[in-house]
Specification:
By secondary structure, this protein is mostly beta strands. The chain has one helix at 7-10, and strands at residues 13-14, 20-24, 30-32, 36-38, 49-54, 57-62, 66-72, 80-86.
Length: 98
């Protein structure tokens, strides 16, 4: 789904850069960067992964969840941190939202 913001909402958002794909290790800890599974050729669709040639070679790269970090200004108060998360609600854990 595409999230569209009205102009007054866009004016309140500050400092958002590109989204960062997050991955979990074997212990369940989140880190920035896509998980990678090497594969010489396409071996079928994998949920949450895309098959491509990337910086770690040819294989399956995780493409979610993604996090965009920035700030939002609410009225006359100082800007507060805001994280927008794109992913399956069953993938998101409290540790991902820092």
């Amino acid at each position: 789904p595409i999230l569209e913001l009205r102009s007054e909402q866009r004016m309140r958002l500050k400092g958002f850069g590109p989204g960062v794909v997050m991955s979990r290790d074997a212990e369940g800890n989140w880190s920035e960067g896509a998980a990678f599974e090497a594969a010489k050729s396409f071996q079928g669709q994998r949920l949450g992964y895309v098959f491509k040639k990337g910086d770690r070679g040819v294989g399956y790269y995780a493409d979610r969840p993604s996090v965009w970090r920035g700030k939002i200004r609410a009225g006359s108060r100082a800007a507060s941190p805001l994280q927008i998360i794109q992913g399956d609600m069953f993938e998101v854990t409290p540790e991902l939202v820092q």
